[in-house]
Design goal:
This protein has 322 residues and is mainly α. The protein has 17 helices and two strands. Its cofactor is Mg(2+).
Amino acid sequence: MQIQDILAVVGDEFQAVDRLIHTQLASRVPLVEKIADYIVSSGGKRIRPLLVLMTAKAFGRSDDNAVKLATVIEFLHTATLLHDDVVDTSDMRRGNPTANAKWGNAPSVLVGDFLYSRAFTMMVELGSLPVMNILSNATCVIAEGEVLQLTNVKNPDTSEAQYMDVIHGKTAMLFEASTHAAAALLQCTPEQSHAMQEYGKELGMAFQLIDDVLDYEGDAEAMGKNVGDDLAEGKPTLPLIHAMAHGNEQQRSLIRSAIRKGGLDDMADVLNAVRELGSLEYTRQKAYDCADRAQSHLQLLPDSEAKEALRALAFLAVKRNT
């Protein structure tokens, strides 16, 4: 299955999410609507709402509530993007200027708050306490992950375990919440709910680890962001952590210095080091391990086209180049 085949499994529901997104973006304040529509319409993959729809489809119970939950998830994700770009002082996302680059930091943060609020309004309309519990907890964990990442910026002593904790919070948690909340909405068995929670978590970890690899060997135009952004911001991602653990003194010193000062002055030398030490392949293998674990958690699902789509998505997450 390719991504277009996966999307076709929930094509009607995906279109319904798109319609609901634009309906829910309506605001009496024109700038709110303008910024929110800009970021939502800027070409994201919408993997997280797709996970909600495919989970519902896999259990044969896709309906308007699943569409609403998928929209909630997309709004939560978009809100975090608006806030992240301000924190990271990013000027490019998905091949376009970021909202903060176009309108400034204050409007971006406030529109992010608007999207959070709109998401929770729709969440209340779903009338499911288990879903509210999962998503309210997820937003806390995501915020903690972002703060934890911030405290690790320009810290070359970040361990692999600490880094895995960061990416679980900042990235994998919303994947996990997407599949877990969908199972809760459908009132699946505890075993099925746990399996979908674990599937989402492992898929999210795989997705972020491949992002780490692509930051060093991706195509900027295809990815819609600058290659080397993580190093420029002084983020100690897994390729760097692995290289510091296995390099010689000169390589360790180079990478530690590059993390501490940020910027891209040492990008070529750092890239040579992570390639020579197999750090990109190590990170890619970690992503494959996560994808394999994700697929193993689908055993409790009834056989269906949606189940195969979920299995294929785990494979595509680690094969992508954007």
